[in-house]
Amino acid sequence: MTWTWFHRLGSPPYIYALAARLTPWFAWPAALLIAGGLVGGLVLAPPDYQQGDGFRIVYVHAPSAWMSLMVYMTMAIAAAVALIWRIKVGHAVAAACAPIGASFTFVALVTGALYGAPMWGTYWEWDPRLTSELILLFLYLGYMGLRAALEDTQRADRASALLAVAGSVNVPIIHYSVTWWNSLHQAPTVMQFGKPKMASSMLVPLLMMLAGFTLYFVAVLLVRLRGEVLSRERAASWIPEVLKT
Amino acid sequence: MPARVLAADSAAGQGGAADASLAADAGAALRTARLALLRDLQLAFRQRSQLVQPLAFFAMVTLLFPLAISPELSRLRPVAPGVLWIAALLASLLALEFLFRDDAHDGTLEQYALSGQSLTWLMFAKTAAHWLLTGLPLALMAPVAALSLGVPARALPGIVASVAVGSVTLSLIGSIGAALTLGIKRSGTLLSLLTLPLSLPVLIFGARATELAINGAPLAAPLELLAALAVLGITLAPLAAAAAVRISLE
Q1: Distance separating alpha carbons of residues A51 and A206, to the nearest angstrom
Q2: Which of A108, A158, B28, B88 is the most exposed place for a label (fewest CB within 10 A)?
Q3: Structurally, how many domains does chain B consist of?
Q4: What is the pTM of this model?
Q5: Is the ipTM of this complex over 0.90?
C-alpha cells in the first residue's frame, strides 16, 4: 500500500487545490438535502398533535445542536492529529472549524429559545440541553479567544490545539454533570427531540436536514480551510500562480 | 516506597520493561518535585500578601451578597451554597495569576523545562503548592463565610471537605489555563473564559455537597464525585500543563 496520498496532505498547495475541487461535491448535495428537508419539514409533514406547527423549528434546531457537538469533535480530533503527528493542515482545519461550530451553537441556542417561547411560555429555561449548549458556546469562545490572543501562529496553533483536546475530555463530564444538576432541580422537560416514535413523514425530513447540515459543514469547512491556507502561506511563491487563474 | 510503586506502574505501561534505571528516574522525579514544592512554599511565605489576597477576596465577594440581596438570614440561607462556591471559584481564579507569573518572569520556568527533569512532575509540584497556598486556606476560611450567611454549625465539616476536595480540581484546571496564557498581556479575562467552563462540574457538585451538608443530609455522593474529578485531574492535568508550558516557552 502506498502512502503518497497521505504525505501529499502535508503540502499546502495540494490541500488548497483539493479543497477547491471537493467543495462543490459537498455544497450541492447539501443544498439539495436542505431544500428537500425544508419542504418536507415545513410543508409536507403534518403538524404535531400536541405542539402544532411550533415543533417545526426542530428541523433547524436539532441539526444545529447536533452539528455544534460534531464540529467540536472534528476540531478536537484535527487538533490532536496536528499536535501529535505535527501535521500543519490539522491546525488549519481546527482553526477553520471553530467559528463554524460557534455559529451552529449560536443557532441552536436561538432556535431553542424561540421554541421555548410558545412551548414553555418563556424564552429561556434552564434546560440541561440548552445549558450544555451555552457552555459549549463558551468553550468555542475561549478557544477562539486564545487563538486571537496569541500573535505567533505556531504558538496559537499548538496552544489552542491543547485547549481543544483538554476541552474534549471535559465535554462529556460537563454534559453529565449538567444533566445531573438539572434532574435535582426540576422535572424532566417537555423537550423530547429525536424520540424514536416520530412518524416517518416527520422523521425523514429531519434526517435529510441532519445529512444536509453535515455536508454543508464540510463544504464551509473546505472554503474556510482554503482561506486559512492562503493566510498561513501568504509569503509562499505558489500563491500568486494559484490566484491568477 | 512511592518511587517503587511508580516505577512498577510505568513499567507495566511499557510492557514490563522494568529495570533499575526506571526506578532511579522515578525516584529522582519525585525528589525534584518535592524540592520544587518546598521552594514554592518558601517563596510564598516570604511574600505573605499574596497568600492573604485571595482570602480577602473570598470574604469580600461573600460580603457582596448580603448587601445585594438582603441582610435577613432567612433569605441568605437558601442561596448560601451558591454564594460560597461562586466566591471560592472566583477567588481561586484570581489566585491563578500567582501560579506561573513570577517563575515565567525570572526564567525559572524555562530552567525547569530545560533541566531534563520531568516537567510533568514539576507541574504537579507547582500545582500542589498552589493548592496548599490557596485551596486549603480557602477551605479553612469557608466556615467563617458560611456562618455569616446563616449556615448551621453542623454543616461546617461538610463544607470544609467539599471546598478542600473541589479546589484541588480547580487548581489543576487552572494550571492548564495559566500555562496556556503565559506571557499574554492582560490575560485575566481570557484565563477566566478558558477555565470557568471547565470548572462548572466542580461548581455543580461542590454546591450540591454544601447544600446537602446544610440540610443535614448525607453528602457522600457529591463528595465522591468531587474526589473522582480530583483524581482525574491529578492524572491528566499535570501532563497537559507541562505540554502547555512547553508550547508557551517555544
Answers
A1: 16
A2: B28
A3: 1
A4: 0.86
A5: no
